[in-house]
Amino acid sequence: MISLIDTHAHYNSADLENLNNEIISINSNKVISNIINVGIDYGISKDAIDISLNNSKFYSTIGVHSLKEGSIEVLNYLCDNCDLRRVVAIGETGIDTNGNVDEQIKKLIASIILANKMKLPVIIHSNTTKNFNIDANKLCIEIIKKCKPQYGFVFHCFQPNLEDLNEILKLGGYISIGPMILKKNAKKSLDVVRNVSINSLLIETDYPYLTKNHDEDLFNIFNKVCLLKNMNKYCMEDYLNENAKRLFYKMK
């Protein structure tokens, strides 16, 4: 039976009304082997840590999202005062043109510095609003070139652009593909999957933001990737799970 790692989801009391029931359901679900539960502010990062320490399917990250209030100092506090055995990354962090880009640049750089100190990879959020004069992907790439994440990075729910894809791969980064490839107008995202190196590809759901059907859509994403890459499902399962464990190396 295929069993997959969801490399980016949000299981916490702020986003899920019945969090405990959701966790019980995941713990009994055979399609999902592990979840990387992503922090986006102090409280949610602390939630993610606690959930991972009490549920073997879950790993956690700590981060301050581009559009969330809070400095990286709150993450330093978590690093100094929490059990970090199952924290596998810093983030998500990055650039979102819906917010104050100048402040986000400072936050992204500080997050990379913290990740390098903690010997962890970075999860990058990059979103350019339509008709905005700043390209979030290109800005994140330029920052990464100047302040390199020494333990790797991934662009989560990658906003599709083949030129940016090639730059990210040259820098040793990973690309994470989510529910957008299931949409009818997903041509650019499908082109990314066709062109990305199989060794640099991850899948995710960004649950509950981009899907309300966690296990079903994770499997649908997986099947679509297999089709686009023309690859046997069991081979693809091995590649995707090994990629996740290589980047998020603290996963057992």
Q: How would you characterize this protein structure?
A:
The protein has nine helices and eight strands. With 252 residues, it is an alpha/beta fold. The protein has a single domain (4-247), classed as Metal-dependent hydrolases (TIM Barrel, Alpha-Beta Barrel). The chain is globular, with a radius of gyration of 17 Å. The mean pLDDT is 96.
Multimer state = single chain
User: What is the domain tally?
Assistant: 1
Radius of gyration from the CA trace? 17 Å
Biggest sheet: strand arrangement: 1-2-3-4-5-6-7-8
What share of the residues does DSSP label as strand, in percent?
A: 15-25%
Average pLDDT, rounded to a whole number, is 96
CATH topology: TIM Barrel
**Biggest pleated sheet:** 8 strands, parallel
Question: How many strands appear in the DSSP assignment?
Answer: 8
- What is the general shape? globular
State the end-to-end distance. Answer: 20 Å
Order of helices and strands: EHEHEHEHEHEHEHEHH
The DSSP helix count reads: 9
* Fraction in helix: 40-55%
Catalogue the unreliable spans. none
Look at the helices and sheets and give the structural class.
alpha/beta
Write the CATH homologous superfamily.
Answer: Metal-dependent hydrolases
Write down the CATH class.
Answer: Alpha Beta
CATH architecture descriptor name: Alpha-Beta Barrel
What is this structure's SSE topology?
Layout: E1 4-9, H1 19-27, E2 32-37, H2 42-54, E3 58-62, H3 73-81, E4 87-96, H4 101-118, E5 122-127, H5 136-146, E6 153-155, H6 162-170, E7 174-177, H7 187-195, E8 201-203, H8 214-229, H9 233-247
Parallel strand pairs: 1-2, 2-3, 3-4, 4-5, 5-6, 6-7, 7-8
